[in-house]
Structure formats: C-alpha cells, structure tokens
Amino acid sequence: MTLTLDDIKAAAGRLAGHIERTPCRHSRTLSEITGAEVWVKFENLQFTAAYKERGALNKLLLLSEEERRRGVIAASAGNHAQGLAYHGARLGVPVTIVMPRGTPFVKVQHTQAHGANVVIHGDTYDDAAAHAQKLREEQQLTFVHPFDDLDVMAGQGTIALEMLEDAPDLEVLPVPIGGGGLISGVAVAAKAIRPDIRIFGCEPAMYPSFTARMRGMNAQAGGQTIAEGIAVKQVGQVTYGVVRPLIEDVLLLEEPYFERALSLYCNVEKTVVEGAGAASLAALLAYPERFRGKKVGLIVTGGNIDTRLLASVLTRELVRAQRLVSLRIIGDDRPGLLATVSHVIGEHGGNIIEVAHNRLALDVPAKGAEFDIMIETRDAQHTQEIMDALRASGYPPRAV
C-alpha cells in the first residue's frame, strides 16, 4: 500500500470545480515577526471551513454506484464529519456519522444541517469508531476513515500541488499531525515535485503520538489542548508508513504558542483559525532557528472554533502582551480617591475596563480601601508609564 504523485494528481482532477481552490499568499507582517519568508494557504476558506473536504470528497467520487446507493459511514466529532456530510448530500450519497457523547452541540447541529444522519454513541472516539464499524457491517455501508485511507490521503495531498503552483520556490513545509492524513498527502506530493523541500511535523506537546512512535515509546497523551483537531492518541498505521521516510523531524508545541499563533492570524491576517489550524505558525514561533531566512509554506487547516474559546484566547493574548492589566491600589477611604486615580490613568491614555472596590479585606486598614482596576493599554511600555504616574501621584499600584 503506497501513495504516489499520480494518485494525488488524479484526485486534483476529480476535485476541480467541487471545492475552493484556496489562495496561497505571502504575508509580509508574519515574515517580519518570524524571520522567515511566510506563505499562507487559507484552507479555512473551504465551504465547511476546513481542508478535510478534499479527502472526503475524493473518497466519495471513487465509490462504485452500488456503494453510493448504500451510503457511507464515519466516526468523527470534527471537520471530517462536516466535509463528508456536505459532499455526500451534494452527490446524493447517504451519510451516517457516529459521534461520541459530549460532542459540542454546534458540531452535531452543523453535521445534521449538511444532511447527515448523526448517531451519538460512546464516551470516546474509540467507542464511536467501534460502533460505526458495527453499523457498517449491519447496513453494508462503506467506512470512510478520517485519515488512515489512501484515497483520503490523496485528496489532502492536493493542497501541496496548489501551494507549489502558487509559490514554486518554497523550501520548508511545517505540517500539523493528528492521525497523519494531511502530512502524508502533502509530503508525498511536495517531495515528488521538489525533492529538496523539507517537511516538519507539528504536534501538540500533550499528544505526541507520532513522536512517540518514532522513538519506540508509548505516547503519554492526554490533557486539554486548544488544538483538539490534532489531539490524537494514536497515529494511523498507513499514514505512518507513508510519511515517516519523508519528514525531517516532528516539533512538539506547548499551548502558549498555539494561542499566540491563533491571535496573530486573527490580528494580522484578519482570518479566523481553529487551534489545530494555527499549528504550523506556532512551530515558527516556538522554533524560529529552524525556519529563519527560509521560504516557508503554512497551511491554515481550518477555522471551526467555538466563539467563546476564540474570545478567551484573544483576551489571554492581551494579558500576555500586558495590554490588559489588573492593578491593585490601596489608599485612604475618602471621597474622590477613585476619581483621582481614574484621572491619572485617563490623562496618560489608559482605558479603564473594570473596577472592583473592596473595603472589607483584612489586610487593608480599617480607614483604607482597596481597588482592583483593569486597564487597557497600547503595550507593556505604556502600562509601565501609567504605573509610574500612579506611583508619582502617591498611589503605588501592584499588578495582580
């Protein structure tokens, strides 16, 4: 079992006109920030906001008439489910998706809205996958694996064909690894077209599945990552065999790098990206020496992120950059104190977001008052200027 450039070119021919040929653009600002020459492939602009459509559609288009009539089944709580459901509906192929209990309702709703029959079963993905295989046998359906399938991998590899058409002199491709479907297809296509191109895998440090297998270890995988799309406990058997000889290394990424990358995409490129979709940029931030001065292609793999999580990540980045700071001020409990402090902050260009006033804390004098004031500033230097001004006015603040 192998995957070839011809397989991927054939997939590209099938997909033409059925999916978006997403743009691959040079980012001057991200290049300045990272020290690399950065090109970004915006797969979040697919209709279901993720690259997974490519592999799912390629698989559907290769089914026999009888297989199409009977329908397909998959286990997924994410982008594979939506891509398969959407294109199944377009082609008139019945789609059943098994999702574990606890799958966010919005994902269930979106998958159903694309016309799929959603079955909720089990507490984990493995439970859902086992039940999907049971239903496949009972109903004679075709199982569409989210990554460990050569036809799916070929569909994902079409991304590399497009990237190297738009930016033929790319030197490095850092690619997210979950189960390995994307990096398999991309690596096969890219290496066949440009044998000297270098491929790096990108994994969440909490889920080092590919890394552990390379090192002959059991992966200690688990924990809450915002890159849940690549939080996979075990890499695919087929994908590992295809991609292992083609990659340089796998880079493990801690959570702050995912958060910063997501924030940069939002603020610099003005595009919404999910945690896993920001993995390749996170690798540039975490390992700048690997990419400095190189022409690097980044794939924004998807943009399906919960709006509350997006808001939280963006706010946390403001705190990390000291643009959102909570200051504690202890002073005399007398009229006008808050007005005086507010005047100093406002006079120096700070914006007060929130005020908490506490007279009852036991570490505050009985005739004193404690304020926690959250302020918004331009940057860390501006924050320091406001703190210095408060100190000079007799109200020394403490960051909390």
TrEMBL record:
Q: Which Pfam families match?
A: ACT_4 (PF13291), PALP (PF00291)
Which reaction is catalysed here? Answer: L-serine = pyruvate + NH4(+); L-threonine = 2-oxobutanoate + NH4(+)
Q: Name one GO molecular function term.
A: nucleotide binding
Enzyme class, broadest EC rank: lyase
Q: What UniProt keywords are attached to this protein's entry?
A: Lyase, Nucleotide-binding, Pyridoxal phosphate
Q: What is the annotated role of this protein in its UniProt record?
A: TdcB also dehydrates serine to yield pyruvate via analogous enamine/imine intermediates. Catalyzes the anaerobic formation of alpha-ketobutyrate and ammonia from threonine in a two-step reaction. The first step involved a dehydration of threonine and a production of enamine intermediates (aminocrotonate), which tautomerizes to its imine form (iminobutyrate). Both intermediates are unstable and short-lived. The second step is the nonenzymatic hydrolysis of the enamine/imine intermediates to form 2-ketobutyrate and free ammonia. In the low water environment of the cell, the second step is accelerated by RidA.
Describe the subunit structure: In the native structure, TdcB is in a dimeric form, whereas in the TdcB-AMP complex, it exists in a tetrameric form (dimer of dimers).
Record family assignment: Belongs to the serine/threonine dehydratase family.
Please report the name of this protein according to its UniProt entry: L-threonine dehydratase catabolic TdcB
Q: Which organism is it from?
A: Caulobacter mirabilis
Q: What is the lineage of its organism?
A: Bacteria, Pseudomonadati, Pseudomonadota, Alphaproteobacteria, Caulobacterales
